[in-house]
User: What shape does this take?
Amino acid sequence: MQFKLMLNGRKYRINDDGEGDAVLMVFHSGQDFVELELLKRYQNNRFRILVIDISQAWPIPASQMTVSQLESLADDVHLFADINWLDKLTLLSSGSGHVLYPMLKQRLKQRLQLANLVNEVESFST
Assistant: This one.
């Protein structure tokens, strides 16, 4: 299911697919194409795949954001997790995830894990 969602006054495109443990990818449509191709492999497994496209709310990718912008983005992702009652969430290190992880870990604490997309996909496909 695809939809748009306002978080703290910023518009995000969300893709929510599947059932099971929640796997989140923070994605910027101008930069993270290869990661999305790998993510499609996850959909054949038993996961709820949540993709947050930040490109409408943030014109630059997370790797180019200031600390203040990253803090605001992390607040938005935290709000998204709370709205969706996500008690356990795996953040993919691909895309913008590796930049956001430290800030999200401060907010979500034990609710958040980090996964390397390539390693995770390979382990599920064997």
